[in-house]
Design brief:
about 500 residues, alpha/beta, elongated, five-stranded parallel β-sheet, about 45% helix, 18 helices
Length: about 500
């Protein structure tokens, strides 16, 4: 490779290997080395490198990978773009879920450069829905833009390192992981690390035998997954793992829109068979045409059209669906960005796909509405956590002491060791009925939250406050740490302690 150019760049560092006047005087291309495909920059010029090693937007650059890309990513295209458009894309029209998958794959090339840089933050998209309704078919459909769809889909039965290696090989486009249920021993913390790694574009740092940090390969990709339910629900039901807000914001849980227009086939299986046959006969050509089209546009026009179409889509959605667009404040920034880029990719590729502007808008709109309006898993999960903690405390009264208050009926029945907190029984306003009020110190809340829901006391306290189980005290210390001062009974003596007050709200919303 070094014999091809008078200048060699290794990961952005200029190295002058040649001082021979003959080579220097020749009008030879730059030889650039890199660790991953996707977008690169040298000497102020931005260009794209495909998984096959071909350079786009920079004819003067020859690129070589530091380590070879797996051969499955370098399949030979079959058929022409007209064949693909007629036989493959033709079957997706009228089906918003399948059209969306095509547009999402095209957008995966633009997503890393949406901010004008070449390594913008990645994102994970989980497409979930009922088994046997076309999720895997849709994923392979998207893969067919770039090559053999059977080769370009990763198995979920892989280690973290193997998945990150696939992300590096897929940099600048999409990585596809089919059927998360096949991932053995799926743990919340590990999956959360994966979501952060995809977003940050870097694997976990590691040290070598000499104690020095090993170099970390960077990448930028959209990680596409399929599952039968949301990842948040899967991990919550399995081990009560609750995603951090940062990880949840970098994960799009996309409900799958099942195919409705089966193009004359008797059922979804027959339709899937027809589409699969077409994909195997014609694949790999649309992705090449898309990269050629971007090269013809050039960096400046790519940025201009990407911004223009993205803003147009968001304006249309805000005008038509203001309630949906303003839902889920902490989540919508990345979601709006992703769907706007998908719409932009569709509009920029109409000459390749043959989709009309209305077909593009309808597909992106329907998928975005379903994700934003129908998939607010946070409320159901948090409400379930609050109720589970309440049930746990109700069942732990035998291990509670009593609040030292005249008329506290709990005094007559407490013989606990106070390890789980303290109990007060207050009038409910309904005859002689009383309702329990629990008081826990921070250690006790941590223990209860961990045993009931696998959460920290701090996270649980924020949920209890959100749903009315805990009111923030008005005094200065209470505003700071959420505690109130109470006198508690300890044997025959009473003591003042700072504790967290937990009481059931008047109404408990549905899960």
């Amino acid at each position: 490779m070094r014999s091809l150019g008078s200048e060699v760049v290794v990961d952005g560092a200029y190295i002058d290997f040649y001082r021979n006047a003959y080579l220097v005087e020749q009008d030879l291309p730059f030889a650039v080395y890199g660790s991953a495909p996707g977008w690169h920059e040298h000497d102020g010029k931005k260009f794209y490198v495909s998984q096959a090693g071909k350079t786009y937007l920079a004819d003067s650059v020859l690129f070589e990978f530091d380590s070879p890309i797996e051969s499955k990513y370098r399949t030979t295209p079959t058929g022409s773009i007209s064949d693909y458009r007629e036989n493959v894309i033709g079957l997706t029209k009228g089906n918003h879920g399948l059209t969306f998958q095509i547009l999402l794959e095209l957008a995966s090339v633009l997503f890393p450069v949406r901010n004008g840089s070449i390594k913008a933050e990645g994102i994970t998209v989980n497409v979930y829905g009922r088994s046997g309704k076309g999720k895997t078919l849709a994923m392979k459909l998207g893969a067919s833009l770039w090559g053999d769809p059977d080769q370009l889909t990763e198995s979920a039965n892989a280690t973290y390192t193997a998945i990150i290696n696939s992300a590096v090989n897929s940099s600048g486009s999409a990585m596809r992981i089919d059927d998360l249920s096949a991932m053995p021993n799926l743990r919340g913390a590990d999956f959360e690390n994966l979501v952060y790694s995809i977003a940050n574009g870097k694997a976990k740092g590691r040290s070598g035998q000499d104690g020095k940090n090993l170099p970390v390969t960077s990448f930028s990709t959209i990680c596409l997954m399929t599952a039968e339910k949301t990842i948040a629900d899967e991990l919550w039901q399995k081990e009560k793992h609750r995603f951090k807000a940062g990880a949840e914001g970098r994960l799009i849980e996309q409900p799958f829109i099942e195919p409705e227009d089966l193009k004359g086939n008797r059922d979804i299986r027959a339709f899937a068979s027809s589409l699969t046959s077409a994909m195997l006969s014609y694949n790999g050509v649309a992705g090449i045409e898309w990269l050629k089209h971007l090269a013809e546009l050039g960096w400046g026009r790519i940025q201009a059209e990407l911004k223009s179409y993205s803003e147009r889509f968001e304006c249309l959605m805000c005008d038509l669906y203001p309630d949906v667009m303003n839902a889920r404040e902490g989540h919508k920034v990345r979601a709006h960005s992703l769907y706007g880029i998908i719409y932009a990719a569709g509009m920029m590729s109409t000459g390749i796909t043959g989709y009309s502007p209305d077909e593009i808008f309808d597909a992106v709109r329907e998928n975005m509405i379903k994700e934003m309006a129908s998939n607010d898993v946070g409320h159901a999960r948090d409400m379930a956590a609050a109720i589970e903690l309440w049930d746990y405390l109700t069942g732990a009264t035998g291990r509670m002491g009593a609040i030292a208050r005249e008329g506290n009926k709990a005094n007559l029945q407490r013989g606990g060791d106070e390890s789980a907190g303290w109990l007060d029984m207050v009038e409910s306003g309904n005859g002689d009925e009383c309702r329990p009020v629990f008081y826990l110190n921070k250690r006790q809340l941590n223990n209860a939250a961990k045993e009931a829901c696998g959460m920290s006391g701090g996270d649980m306290l924020s949920i209890l406050t959100k749903y009315g189980y805990h009111e923030i005290p008005l005094d200065a210390r209470g505003e700071r740490d959420g505690t109130v001062q109470r006198r508690v009974r300890s044997g025959s003596a009473t003591t003042n302690v700072r504790v967290i007050k937990i009481s059931a709200p008047e109404e408990i919303g549905e899960i």
